[in-house]
């Protein structure tokens, strides 16, 4: 990549060494040629893994350690700051405040973005996009710490996102085919340490943590970057399981990193039939999670329908529900540890899962206490608390089935605004409560006054206004009427305005929002923890049995036992997945010339399609004519024109 001279000096990023580029090209060629990293496990459950050991020993621990990430981050930061800079004139900061839409205008692309793209672009340096997003995260963090630089830092963050999108798009255009897809995957999901390549000093007390460009794009809400065609190409390939890799995780409940899978293209016909790694493919895992939740809902309904308030012992339904739900909560806890709390909360229904986990935890503690003490009242309270899970579980199923519906996406965003405004309103209402409590001089309890205020707030009853004269003949009605006016008028007006603004923003960018949510779900579904290979409630047994075994045997033997156990427990499911992925339905076959005599299934579909009005319009494109027929038609048209 070519350097760009600025007023502050030459901050251009020079091209990497030729040896580094050759090393990366050889790595990509090897992974593309192999395509079987995820499937190199032997077919037998507990066979010899000598080939695995050989491959693992030949593979370097960090194949991208030659990239100076630390230096690139700071070089990019200097170029961005020099492009969008502050000018001080009479102690007033004059900046270049541009929004993301303004930066994507044709004039701004030519003047600001394209020179940076030309400077940063290097198809052999897969860390450029990562470093741009690291700078975006930093600029967004600085916007709240430096008030006088707030607008310019927002502009710099938007510029980093726009340049990263353009660089990734150019890489996609210059590298077509499967090799280009593999290169894009390395750019987006390869993990890097921000301090990689640092020289001359050591950072004391630092715990190394690796991130990916896709993860940084999600955390910084780079929705333009996430919705780009190049990014969505990789997201779709990961979601379908065509691209496989082992993500980096700061903590695993059941770690098994003996055989790490580098980023590679998955070839199902070369993989073993019982491939337990396919259980963490995002598309398959999403289906499994929906099935798990449906079972959880069924067990919950059975418990609540067959509950007996006069009995404090566990029945069969409740025992099954407790064990299965505990395994489901363990799966959610492992998901939080896998990618962190910030990424987990980006999920559309994470707040519902956390809420039900809290309800279940309170219920289980009270239920165990009731059994231990023989107190029937505590048992009833536990079941009453468990009944509060119904308003959580039923909407949660709708969120799972219609995850890309704009209504549910808007509800999640509006709920955050609603709770923030409600907490502020309750905080401000506490002043009215204290004033009326002191005016009552002990005549009414604070709970009674707060009940009156709540009724007035929601316009359900006017008892508080009628009896406010008992507090004080003038000040009591004044306070209550002022509270009613502010609560019903000001609060509701602000609430409606905020929710309408949030809804309009989301609906206006519905496509971008859908792409962003799809990327969040796909990235969060890729797991490295071995606990996810066991379905609830078998994950409880795996944690209790396999985790102690890890400290007693070698990593190689633990890996073999873990593979054997996961394949045995999931054998029917793995067999079904393997047969499905080997069918032509899973393959993204290249367009081929079909004759109307093949395949027969097409004719079956065509026969049934006559029951509908416009299915032939879609079905006609399933039968491409041959080149001879097209050439005959072209010759006929030319002869007609001559006549």
From TrEMBL:
Cite the InterPro entries for this sequence.
LHD_YVC1, TRP_calcium_channel, YVC1_C
- Please list the residue ranges annotated as the YVC1 N-terminal linker helical domain: 127-253
**Bilayer-spanning residue ranges:** 287-305, 317-336, 348-369, 419-440, 481-503
What range(s) does the Calcium channel YVC1-like C-terminal transmembrane domain occupy? 293-583
Which keywords does this Swiss-Prot/TrEMBL entry list? Answer: Membrane, Transmembrane, Transmembrane helix
Q: Does the keyword Transmembrane apply?
A: yes
Looking at the keywords, is Membrane present? yes
Name of the protein in question = Nonselective cation channel
């Amino acid at each position: 990549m070519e350097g760009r001279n600025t007023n502050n000096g030459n901050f251009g990023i020079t091209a990497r060494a030729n040896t580094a580029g050759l090393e990366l090209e050889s790595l990509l060629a090897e992974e593309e040629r192999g395509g079987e990293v995820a499937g190199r496990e032997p077919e037998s459950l507990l066979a010899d893994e000598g080939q695995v050991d050989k491959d693992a020993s030949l593979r370097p621990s960090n194949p991208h350690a030659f990239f100076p990430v630390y230096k690139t981050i700071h070089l990019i930061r200097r170029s961005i700051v020099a492009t969008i800079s502050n000018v001080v004139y009479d102690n007033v900061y004059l900046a270049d405040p541009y929004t993301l839409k303004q930066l994507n205008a044709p004039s701004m692309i030519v003047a600001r973005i394209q020179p940076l793209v030309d400077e940063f672009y290097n198809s052999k340096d897969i860390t450029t996009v990562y470093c741009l997003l690291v700078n975006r995260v930093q600029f967004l963090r600085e916007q709240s710490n430096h008030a006088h630089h707030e607008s310019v830092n927002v502009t710099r963050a938007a510029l980093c996102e726009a340049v990263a999108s353009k660089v990734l798009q150019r890489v996609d255009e210059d590298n077509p085919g499967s090799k280009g897809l593999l290169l894009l995957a390395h750019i987006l999901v390869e993990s890097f340490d921000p301090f990689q390549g640092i020289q001359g000093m050591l950072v004391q007390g630092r715990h190394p943590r690796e991130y990916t460009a896709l993860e940084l794009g999600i955390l910084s809400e780079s929705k333009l970057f996430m919705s780009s065609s190049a990014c969505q190409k990789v997201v779709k390939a990961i979601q379908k399981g065509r691209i496989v890799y082992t993500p980096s995780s700061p903590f695993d409940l059941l770690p098994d990193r003996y055989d790490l899978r580098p980023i590679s293209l998955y070839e199902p016909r070369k993989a073993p039939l019982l491939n337990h790694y396919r259980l963490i493919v995002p598309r398959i895992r999403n289906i499994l999670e929906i099935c798990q939740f449906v079972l959880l809902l069924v067990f919950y309904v059975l418990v609540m329908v067959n509950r007996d308030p006069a009995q404090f012992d566990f029945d069969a339904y409740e025992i099954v529900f407790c064990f299965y739900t505990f395994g489901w909560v363990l799966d959610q806890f492992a998901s939080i540890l896998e990618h962190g709390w910030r990424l987990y909360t980006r999920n559309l229904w994470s707040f519902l899962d956390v809420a039900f986990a809290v309800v279940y935890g309170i219920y289980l503690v009270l239920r165990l206490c009731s059994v231990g003490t023989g107190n029937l009242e505590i048992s009833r309270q536990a079941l009453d608390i468990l009944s509060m899970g119904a308003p959580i579980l039923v909407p949660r199923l709708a969120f799972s089935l219609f995850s890309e519906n704009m209504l549910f996406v808007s509800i999640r965003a509006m709920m955050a605004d609603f709770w923030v405004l409600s907490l502020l309103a309750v905080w401000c209402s506490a002043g009215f409560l204290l004033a009326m409590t002191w005016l009552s001089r002990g005549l009414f309890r604070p709970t009674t006054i707060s009940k009156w205020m709540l009724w007035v707030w929601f316009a359900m009853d006017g008892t508080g206004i009628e009896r406010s004269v008992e507090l004080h003949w003038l000040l009591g009605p004044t306070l209550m009427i002022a509270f009613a006016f502010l609560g019903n008028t000001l609060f509701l007006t602000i609430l409606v305005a905020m929710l309408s603004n949030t809804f309009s923003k989301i609906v206006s960018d519905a496509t971008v929002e859908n792409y962003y949510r799809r990327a969040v779900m796909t990235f969060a579904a890729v797991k490295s923890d071995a606990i996810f290979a066991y379905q609830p409630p078998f994950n409880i047994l795996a944690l209790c049995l396999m985790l102690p075994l890890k400290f007693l045997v070698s990593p190689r033997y633990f890996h073999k036992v873990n593979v054997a156990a996961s394949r045995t427990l999931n054998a029917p499911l793995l067999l079904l997945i393997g047969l499905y992925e080997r069918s032509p339905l899973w393959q993204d076959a290249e367009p081929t010339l079909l004759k109307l005599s093949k395949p027969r299934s097409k004719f079956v579909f065509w026969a049934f399609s006559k029951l509908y009005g416009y299915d032939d319009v879609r079905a006609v494109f399933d039968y491409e004519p041959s080149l001879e027929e097209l050439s005959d038609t072209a010759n006929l048209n030319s002869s007609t024109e001559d006549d």
